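Protocol step 4 of 6: structure prediction from sequence.
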Amino acid sequence: MAYIIAITGGIGSGKSTVAHTFAKLGIPLVDTDIIARQVVKPNSFAFRLMVEKFGLSILRSNGSLDRINLKKRIFKVPSDRIWMESLLHPVILKKSQDRIFSINSPSYIIWIVPLLIENRSYLFRANRVLLVDTDYQSQIQRAMKRDNMKYEEVKKIILVQSSRQNRLSFADDIIDNSGYPQDIRDQVIRLHLYYLKLAKKFQITLSSTYL
């Protein structure tokens, strides 16, 4: 069993950038966003239920899910967002846990969970929480550029997500992503060395438990 570091942060905070910096150091990643895409592939159980509820307007011309359009829609209607989360989160959690346990890592695993704080069932599965933190305006600009969303649309998502202060209160470690790319690498390397030590202690404790 590997030591699990859960990476979280608000929309546009740069979670993927940080996670892939760890990956370049040889650390395995388990990304709940990738798993979420797999869960809603055309003709999957979740896909069929979503089309039944929201109609064909949530699909692209090729029949796949239009995730950006769907995101905009569910953040306008809270009950739709709650319905979606109730449908998808248990499946995503199960599949991500299966993937984590299938990885034979001698050190630690990075688990990317955007809604870690909002969904406590994820929170309690991690050994440590790493928050990717950035300022409000950077979040807005990055999300607008990445997802082709309007200012007000991104703002609505930020307001629904856990507050910056609340995330900080749950974080064991913090990476400040409001500066330059080199700053991220320096912070990741520092934490990487620290996590290797924690993972080694964890494995020793785990081994002694089963002796």
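Step 5 (inspection) to follow. The first strand starts at residue 3 and ends at 8.
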